[in-house]
Structure formats: structure tokens, C-alpha cells
Design brief:
The chain is of the alpha+beta class. The chain folds into two domains: about 35-45 and about 55-75 and about 190-305, no CATH class; about 75-185, 2-Layer Sandwich (Alpha-Beta Plaits), CATH 3.30.70.2970. Helix content is about 25%, strand content about 35%. The protein is built from five helices and twelve strands. The chain has helices at about 1-20, 90-110, 165-175, 190-215, 250-255; strands spanning about 60-70, 75-85, 120-135, 140-160, 180-185, 220-235, 240, 265-270, 280, 290-305, 320-325, 330-335. The strands form four sheets. A four-stranded mixed sheet has the order 6-10-1-9, with helices on one face. α2 packs antiparallel against α3.
């Protein structure tokens, strides 16, 4: 009885762990079709080498780097929809298009999205041709003749709350507008974000410098060099896809019959930048897709070369001398002593 209870608890724990990981972790299975880069989904497993730290190698160059990331919820969003209208005449085409757009505007006004937040971008307005067959005695002629007009527009809809997007989709779908081109994210004051990141980086740099001072390294004896960068990533850059399924048919193998493959559903998920490489994370808990703004700075300190000691100049004292040439041609050198 005890063994049965233990086995049941073990199975329950395994099932709970799988639910926490989600279906994206199943894409490492053998029968999963990889649609794009797997990202973090394939890091699960028993390979402990993945989690081991690299060996530390002492280096005469002191490197201090700080990486900061700020997850910003957008101040506003702009959804872009593409819509096409066909009519027999130019007037009918324009009238039908305006009716659809005005219906969307009217529905969104009740949701706090007004006409000033909806912009129409006309893409094209061209005639549509149809091929007419003209039969002759011994041949046929295919002639293109105008049949109507096609008007294509993009509808730009601005909203400030992410839960308004559902209402935007409903209003567009009601008027047969289904082609969502993209959703743009905007920040009103991005310079304030960078200013906050700089302040946090300076604070962390001071703490790291103090750490080296406590270890006994006087950084004033080192020559510093620096490199820095900043970047801004939007949610659409981090959507990945996968197909999670399991196709096994032992019966088909036994009977040596072919398998008609069904179309597998492609799933998408938001996979933002990982936090493990960062020293500073502002707003780490992400519920909705966010704009990720980062800054990095790296300082390298190389020990200054020792200043060479100045060479002392030796003062050479030249003594006055005189020369005496004898009758025999012999030269004699004698020191000239001067009285002070």
C-alpha cells in the first residue's frame, strides 16, 4: 500500500512539473517538426554540463562590466489592418469602403478610441479587368475589359490600453476586416528610460569598484579603457513558433501501409531576452509583451608601467693642462695649478 501511494505521488509530481514547463518544452521530442530556432525550449534535460560554470583564469587586466535591462510597458499601441474593397464603379467602391470604415469608427468610439486615433492610408485604387472570349469563325480571341474597381487601404488604429485590442479586433472582424498587418509599440519619453538606466549603471559600477578596492587593488594605478552600447527591442522580434505533436503508428508499420499526414498546428509564444546575463533588471516580472531597453558598459583596467628613474648626469671636471716640447722633440704634459 505504501509503495502504491509513493508511486502515485511521484507521478503527480512529474505531471505538475510538466504543466509548469508548458508545451514548448516538448519540442525536443523526436517527432516534433522544428519550424524556427528553438531558443530556450531545448535546454531541459539531464545534461549537467549546461549548468556548470566556466573555469576561472587569472588575468592581469581587470574587467568591470555592467548590463542593465528595463522592461517597459508601452504607453500606446498602433494596430495596422489591411482591407480591400471591390465595386462595379469607382463611386460604389468608395462608398462601400467608407461604410465599413465608418462602422469600425462608430464601434470603437464607445470603447474610448475616437476618430483622431484612426488614420486611413490609401494604398491603391485600380480598375479590375476580366477576360472576355470573342468567338470567330476559325479562332477565339481573349480580350481584357474593365469589370470594376479595387480599393486597398490600411487602417491605423491607436489605443493606449492593451485590453482595448480585443475590442478593436471584434469591431474589425464585424466589418470583414481580418488582415492584421502588425502592432507597433510606442514610448512617450524614451530618454527618461535611458537616464534611469545610466543612474543604475553608475551605482552598480561604484559598488564593483569598491569590491576591488576591498580586495587590495588600487585602481588609480591602472589605466582605464571603456566601451558602451544601448539597444531597444520590440515584442515582434521575439515571437517564436513550434509544432508540438507525437505521431506514432505501430499498426501502420505492421501492415506496411502508408500514413497520410495531417496538417499540424503551429503555435507561437513570446520569448523575451533572458535575464541571466544582466546585473540590473528593472520591472522583471513580465505579464504582457513589453519593450526591452538595455544598456551595457565595460571598463578594462591595465596596470600603468613603472616610471623609469631619471639618469643622474655625472659632472666631468676638466683639469687645465699645458704641454712642454723639449729640444729633442719629446712632448711632456703637466697639470696647470691655479691659485685661488
Amino acid at each position: 500500500m505504501k509503495h502504491s501511494i509513493y508511486l502515485a505521488l511521484l507521478l503527480y509530481a512529474s505531471f505538475t512539473s510538466a504543466q509548469i514547463r508548458g508545451n514548448a518544452t516538448t519540442i525536443s521530442r523526436q517527432n516534433v517538426i522544428h519550424a524556427e530556432s528553438l531558443g530556450n525550449a531545448n535546454t531541459y534535460g539531464n545534461n549537467l554540463n549546461t549548468f556548470r560554470q566556466r573555469n576561472l583564469v587569472p588575468n592581469p587586466v581587470i574587467t568591470i562590466d555592467v548590463k542593465a535591462l528595463n522592461n517597459i510597458v508601452a504607453d500606446s499601441y498602433t494596430a495596422v489592418f489591411n482591407l480591400v474593397q471591390i465595386g462595379e464603379t469607382a463611386e460604389d467602391t468608395n462608398r462601400l469602403m467608407n461604410a465599413r470604415v465608418n462602422s469600425v469608427k462608430s464601434a470603437l468610439t464607445t470603447q474610448g478610441i475616437f476618430n483622431k486615433d484612426i488614420i486611413i492610408d490609401v494604398i491603391s485604387f485600380v480598375p479590375v479587368y476580366e477576360t472576355v472570349v470573342e468567338k470567330k469563325l476559325f479562332s477565339k480571341t481573349y480580350t481584357e475589359v474593365p469589370k470594376g474597381f479595387e480599393l486597398q487601404q490600411n487602417l491605423h488604429i491607436k489605443f493606449t490600453k492593451v485590453n482595448q485590442f480585443e475590442k478593436v479586433l471584434a469591431a474589425c472582424a464585424k466589418n470583414e476586416i481580418y488582415n492584421l498587418v502588425k502592432v507597433d509599440y510606442f514610448i512617450n519619453n524614451i530618454e527618461a528610460v535611458y537616464t534611469k538606466l545610466r543612474a543604475e549603471i553608475l551605482k552598480t559600477l561604484k559598488e564593483k569598484k569598491q569590491f576591488y578596492l576591498d580586495l587590495g587593488f588600487d585602481l588609480t594605478n591602472y589605466k582605464p579603457t571603456m566601451a558602451d552600447t544601448k539597444y531597444c527591442h520590440f515584442p515582434r522580434e521575439f515571437y517564436k513558433n513550434y509544432q508540438a505533436f507525437n505521431s506514432i503508428s505501430l499498426e501502420a508499420i505492421k501492415k506496411n501501409k502508408g500514413i497520410v499526414k495531417a496538417k499540424k498546428q503551429t503555435s507561437y509564444y513570446y520569448d523575451p531576452l533572458s535575464f541571466k546575463e544582466y546585473d540590473i533588471i528593472i520591472n522583471p516580472s513580465i505579464v504582457e509583451p513589453v519593450i526591452q531597453i538595455g544598456m551595457e558598459i565595460k571598463l578594462q583596467y591595465r596596470e600603468k608601467p613603472e616610471t623609469p628613474k631619471p639618469i643622474e648626469k655625472v659632472k666631468e671636471v676638466i683639469k687645465n693642462k699645458y704641454f712642454i716640447l723639449s729640444k729633442d722633440g719629446e712632448l711632456t704634459v703637466k697639470e696647470l695649478k691655479l691659485e685661488n
